[in-house]
Amino acid sequence: MVSYLQVENLTKSFGDNLLFENISFGISDNQRVALIAKNGTGKTTLLNIIAGIEDYNNGNVSFKRDLRIGYLNQDPDFPKELSVIDACLRSDNEAVRTIAAYEHCMISENHDGLDEILSQMDLHKAWDYETRIKQILGKLKITNFEQLIGELSGGQLKRVALANVLIAEPDLLILDEPTNHLDLEMVEWLEDFLKRSTMALLMVTHDRYFLDRVCTNIMEIDHQGLFQYTGNYSYYLEKRQERIENWNTESERTVNLYKKELEWMRRQPQARAHKAKSRQESFYEIEERAKQRRNNDKVQLDVKASYLGSKIFEAKYISKAYGDNKILDNFYYNFARYEKMGIVGKNGTGKTTFLKMLLGLVKPDSGSFDVGETVVFGYYSQDGLAFDEQMKVIDVVRDIAEEVSLGNGKKMSSSQFLQYFLFSPETQYNYVYKLSGGEKRRLHLCTVLMRNPNFLVLDEPTNDLDIVTLNILEEYLQSFKGCVIVVSHDRYFMDKVVDHLLVFKGNAELKDFPGNYTDFREWNELMEEQEREEKNKEQRAKCKDNGQRTADIAPQLQPDKKKLSYKEQKEFESLEKDIQKLEIEKLEIESQLASGKLSTDEIIKASQRHAEVNDLIEEKTMRWMELSEM
Q1: Conformational region of residue 323, where left means phi above 0, alpha means psi within -120 to 50, and beta covers everything else
Q2: From CA 501, how far away is CA 341, in angstroms rounded?
């Protein structure tokens, strides 16, 4: 294995806030490493240090000579006047720059300089590269190449930045929350792309299926230290639990020893000069160790929902469109008590618009929502809450309520409530601008739940939340005595939380599926397989008909057999069969290329074979015509 990155004794702090101390690790070729930690403990900071964006206190970071690094950060930044295609193809790679020039030329009306660009494409062998680039752009739904970066939404910008780092094909790819702003189809494509790639990978993500299926190694920052595991996410969970149990067992022994040593220290007269100095020093080390205890910190969401009556909401024949883009068309649905619905679909199909219509934030073109009188919505929005950055965390919560009702007459103060969300008393008096992105999300969730809603509407709640918070949020939603609608691309989250799915297919086509996301994915794959088989049958039947017509016509063109030699006659008969087989193969390849299911390597191989088959058909047809005219 070739070492790409070596980090030795790295320490980073912001003032008194120590993120990590003396951590060391390495990354080699073909390793795919995930970095896991609670929000605010230094995940993004560590990635920024490796990328050369942030400084560090002590330690050393070294790379293999001439290592090419690609970094997708949480907030990508491109010049606003740059076009989308230029941003995607921003690279030191000469072939990529040539492809950028080719795309601009093809978009222009007069195609100026096309001959020169085509020769450059041939020179740099860029055609196969262009096929891979087009697949990446297509899968990420990047189609308006001339649009300016300044006109993009945050999600569109993140996808452009992701396309840029994937197209560059660096030796080491660093990704910070790459699945944010991707729909489920894009997430599954990216998962497959990275599994097949030869790039080394260092990644921060909360998507546990993604971690389990892509990563070969897991690193965890915990209590300012780094713990490493060789294996996927499932293996990490098992070994992490063992580590915590072993630590706590050792801590109990240390506590017992501490009690004995404390008793000894108290017995010693203060004036005795001959007290064992080494034993004193050892006592203070034992004392510090005894006060430490590892545990699975939890966001304990013990908030009771308000009373919910039997009538929830009724969507009465809702229609909504933006120009030619239909969202809903005469849609009817009657929501049941305690129902937990997941909403999935490609970006742009109207998932968030549907939620906003339900909440009264967007008006439908026709139809209405009849909401029950007892329904109290809690809306966790995709954009998050617009906090005053200069407010303290505790004041954000106190502005909503000084106390939070837990049901059965029980209450707790806003400060106690924040502690349930892992905001320590010290952190509560931090200003909002000092919080990490994930901590702001957690604060937003806190402000939603403290209002005691009985109907939660969650739009992408998993973005930027750490895995610890996600686990407890899942447990809370499973036992939540109210209704839930959740839009999320986190498949693991959806599988644990929802009872059924409302699938937005686009153009106002919706499907209500009775099951979780994994159930739906398996069903969908089965349907797609059956559809492909039907198409293949039709194509084979079509080719068979074409072959029969060729056989019917052939005798009219076929010369007197006596004029052909025995060898030529056998060749003539063989050519008819060969051409028919090649035509069938050509149609099958075209069907595969149009399916969008092929990997990059498979697309390249299929394209190459398609060209070979075309050449063979032409060659054999010419020979068939020569023999037929003899």
Answers
A1: left
A2: 6
Query: Percentage of residues in the chain with pLDDT exceeding 90?
Result: 37
3-state secondary structure of 504: strand
Provide φ and ψ at 447, rounded to 5°. Answer: -70, -25
Question: For 56-70, 340-354, 508-522, 589-603, which range has the lowest pLDDT when averaged over its residues?
Answer: 589-603
Rounded to whole angstroms, what are the CA distances from 424 to 384, 421, 447? 22, 9, 16
Quote the CA–CA distance of 126 and 117 in Å, as a whole number.
Answer: 11
Nearest to 539 by CA among 470, 571, 585: 585
- Determine which of 92-96, 161-165, 303-307, 389-393 has the lowest per-residue pLDDT on average: 303-307
With CA atoms as reference, report the closest residue to 101 among 164, 162, 145, 157. Answer: 145
Q: Contact at 8 Å (CB) between 587 and 607?
A: no
Is the C-alpha dihedral spanning 465, 467, 469, 472 positive or negative?
Answer: positive
Average pLDDT over residues 513-518: 90
Residue 115: CB atoms within 10 A of its CB come to 9
Distances from the Cα of 452 to the Cαs of 141, 379, 401, 429, 625, in angstroms?
Answer: 39, 12, 11, 24, 81
Place of tokens 């560090």: 56
The amino acid at 355: L
Cβ-based neighbour number of residue 113 at 10 Å:
14
Residue with tokens 């993500």: 205
For residue 451, the one-letter residue type is: R
Which contacts qualify for 64-68: CB closer than 8 Å, 24 or more apart? 64/2, 64/3, 64/4, 64/5, 64/171, 67/4, 67/5, 67/171, 67/172, 68/168, 68/170, 68/171, 68/172
What crossing angle do the helices spanning 277-290 and 233-267 adopt, rounded to 10°?
Answer: 140
Among 506, 475, 472, 500, smallest CA distance to 486 is for 500
What number of CA atoms fall less than 13 Å from residue 399's CA on the CB side? 11
Identify the bridge partners of residue 14 per DSSP, sorted by sequence position: 17
Percent of the chain residues topping a pLDDT of 70 = 85
For residue 388, give Cα distances in angstroms to 74, 75, 395, 410, 464. Answer: 21, 20, 10, 30, 19
pTM attached to this predicted model: 0.71
